[in-house]
């Protein structure tokens, strides 16, 4: 099977690593890929992910059997619709179903219509009504701009003053004519839960927790994710059962009934509250760095599973996961998520991978001759498997100690919740 993988991050390197192990793999291409992916697939350049015509041409000339889409933006832009109209199989939902991530209002209305547990909410186009609602409900309260905001666009206001001040800010983030959501604050522990979905067949692909704040003790600004581990102890078998029954399956059914079946991976961001799991948000792709830990734990062949999702032939068999724990620690350039420099040299990558169970996935790197240079904010995800979280974590940090990159930093406390539990 000839495969084209779209994307360039740590998530895509992990997908490429797992896919490349498949005996079914034929020619393997990545667009644009990264220096880590380059050792597994042919990385193509010169075609932006926004250029759907060029991607179709590429698929036809390279006889691609399956396109695997890593990031959300091309899906929200309709890449799956375009590929499917050309008869090319694609792992990732069509535009309408991708609204689950592309529009928070779409998801909230779907939840409301199908009694899916989520935070109560109001929607507003005017500042005055929004202020009156916040005054009435008090704090803590959550303000959100609609649309694909790349992890921004959400203010969790702990006081009434913060909430009132935040209203103008979220309207501004959403742009002119935007609608904002104001939500009940959910209290509990957050979990990421992944399911392969082919219309109505829903296969759980494990849980993970990520760490969104930049610094130890969950302090500092929000980031795309500084580390993750899987499984998440708070997500018990009972929580998984309830989430499937109350949240994920009704969502898949609602979309299938509306003639826009979801095909791809559905990433449910959940709050485990005292009343049980509630949906915070959906994403229509694997998480980054959650994907890295899931790929480390997955047993067996990923490629036929993704192909089955793409062609609507997913069988109702659990995705085989190792009982081991996996952890990934992001190494980022100093300054991230604010301004940071590029071009610093990274050494010790091979030495790091000699530790048993360790894989270093590239995210924001660039190759220059024999050198690997930092080329982004999140640069590496050092990922390790172990018999339990403590062992996996020790391996990951031992690997990090072998990486020679003074301009990089990482959190030292990834998976603290699982260790304290
Ligand atoms: P989102 O972009 O919707 O994932 O929101 C970003 C982060 O804000 C989430 O990961 C949560 O930590 C927090 N958050 C979002 N909605 C709520 C809510 N209703 N209650 C509490 N925290 C929330
Ligand atoms: N790590 C969170 C995300 O990928 O959205």
From TrEMBL:
It catalyses: 5-phospho-beta-D-ribosylamine + glycine + ATP = N(1)-(5-phospho-beta-D-ribosyl)glycinamide + ADP + phosphate + H(+). Its EC number is 6.3.4.13. One of its GO terms (biological process) is 'de novo' IMP biosynthetic process. The keyword Kinase does not apply. InterPro entries: ATP-grasp (IPR011761), ATP_grasp_subdomain_1 (IPR013815), PreATP-grasp_dom_sf (IPR016185), PRibGlycinamid_synth_ATP-grasp (IPR020561), PRibGlycinamide_synth (IPR000115), PRibGlycinamide_synth_C-dom (IPR020560), PRibGlycinamide_synth_C_sf (IPR037123), PRibGlycinamide_synth_CS (IPR020559). Its cofactor is Mn(2+); Mg(2+). Pfam families: GARS_A (PF01071), GARS_C (PF02843), GARS_N (PF02844). Keywords: ATP-binding, Ligase, Nucleotide-binding, Purine biosynthesis. Residues 108-311 form the ATP-grasp domain. GO terms for molecular function: ATP binding; metal ion binding; phosphoribosylamine-glycine ligase activity. Pathway: Purine metabolism; IMP biosynthesis via de novo pathway; N(1)-(5-phospho-D-ribosyl)glycinamide from 5-phospho-alpha-D-ribose 1-diphosphate: step 2/2. PROSITE patterns: ATP_GRASP, GARS. It is an enzyme of class 6 (ligase). It comes from the Bacteria. Belongs to the GARS family. This is Phosphoribosylamine--glycine ligase.
